[in-house]
Amino acid sequence: MSEVKLEDIVSLCKRRGFVFQASEIYGGLAGFWDYGPLGVEIINKIKATWWSAMVTESDNIFGVDGAIIQNPKLWEASGHVAGFTDPLVDCKNCGARHRADHLAGTDSTNLEELTELLKDKACPTCGKKTLTEPRTYNMMMKTWVGPIEDDSTVAYLRPETAGSIFTNYENVRETMRAKLPFGIAQIGKAFRNEISARDFIFRVRELEQMEMQYFINPKDSEKVYEDWRAFAWTFLVDRLGISEKNLQWHEHAENERAHYAAAAHDIYFNFPFGSKELWGTHNRTDFDLTSHSKASKKELSYFEESTKERFTPYVIESSVGVGRMFLAVLADAYFEEEKDGEKRIVLKLSSELAPYRFAVSPLLKNKPELAEKAREVYAACKKKYGNVMWDDNGNIGKRYRRQDEIGTPKCVVIDFQTLEDNTVTVRDRDTTEQVRVSIDDLISK
Ligand code: GAP
User: Fold this and answer.
1) Where are the alpha helices (DSSP H) in 196-321?
2) What is the band of 1 on the pLDDT scale with cuts at 50, 70, 90?
3) Residue 268: alpha-carbon gap to chain centroid
4) Nearest Cα to Cα of residue 431 among 363, 340, 328, 330
5) Cα–Cα distance for residue pair 385/401, rounded to 1 Å
6) Ligand 1 atom nearest residue 160's Cα
7) What Rg do the C-alpha atoms of the chain give, in angstroms?
8) Which residue has a Cα nearest atom 6 of ligand 1?
9) Whole-prediction pTM value?
10) What is the pLDDT of residues 78-109, one digit of tens each?
């Protein structure tokens, strides 16, 4: 378990404009969150880093951006209408609803096992032993398409982005003249009517996923599965700078796996509320293309010229939630430290993920000559680096504290010496050490 407390992260997120409750002025809505000015910067950088590693740097992975609402037949064929369920218990006394597996403290979703485990359990809300037997509950969110609201117009908000990747498999293969193995990647919103949305942005009802489905010859599945597991780990450590000591592998037992998966390994992260799923790698076999081919009556098999074989490709899937990744990045970077007898909160984000690379300030606000020079330096840094913040609020100590909390790696301060020799003070966030650097060096690096 991480030593960071969730309430400290929630409070930092609100105080510094990372994450707000959705429709907060109306009391919020459980499971929905808005990213604020600094949160959206980090979210965009996480997505850009993933997209670059997955699509831009690859020769055979192509991006798509599918619609959130698709023909509902897609979700019948994928098994979600029948099988995208969680076990639920109701309390007959107070009406509270709980995830049966969470209440039983197990990963199993088997109803018989859960009935046994929960038979003497009391409702955590009212304390009475009045829970119903567990039953399954479908998590897909429904809407209606067009002006008539009846069974014939029901549609679903996608529960995973993967759906439109499978339905576009043939379109992408043909238009990109792709040969196996190749992948299709997508970043987008998905919706799940979770029984209990909880742990801040960890389990939400509107989420964003980054998914990649890799289409392969079935004979290669074991090797490719291992490659994509390694990709996920390396990405978290090397590209996002997450500390390996906060990561663990978790292999899904058979009763834990999604209805489509033959094998599944999650990377767990030490969140403040325990070690929990961050990123899944799944072997979906030929489940999806076979199901969609049967239901749509469209041929989705593949002809391998070199061996003259025809087969339905297997899919190895790499799937991670953007919000969960953001929370892991924040929890990993959050430190409370004593520096020179003072307590400080510091987000040790990598300079690639920090909302701002530099903050530029005049040492004293009320000295026009310093402010003027500082504005000049700020403009030059902004031109060169883009994500640079102007900060002249409060005294310099307060500015450092604020920039530490939002993870700005360097604070550039313009003082009287700057006016003489064109050098500035650059203060390092992590060591708090200060060095003098010439403005030319600062903007020509
Ligand atoms: N296409 C496969 C799939 O959707 P999943 O394990 O259900 O698999 C993949 O979800 C990832 O999406 C998870 O590892 C997690 O990062 C994220 N995720 C799933 N449900 C979530 C929720 N309710 N809130 C936030 N993130 C969620």
Assistant:
1) 221-234, 287-296
2) low
3) 13
4) 340
5) 22
6) 4
7) 26
8) 280
9) 0.94
10) 999 998 888 999 999 998 889 999 999 988 88
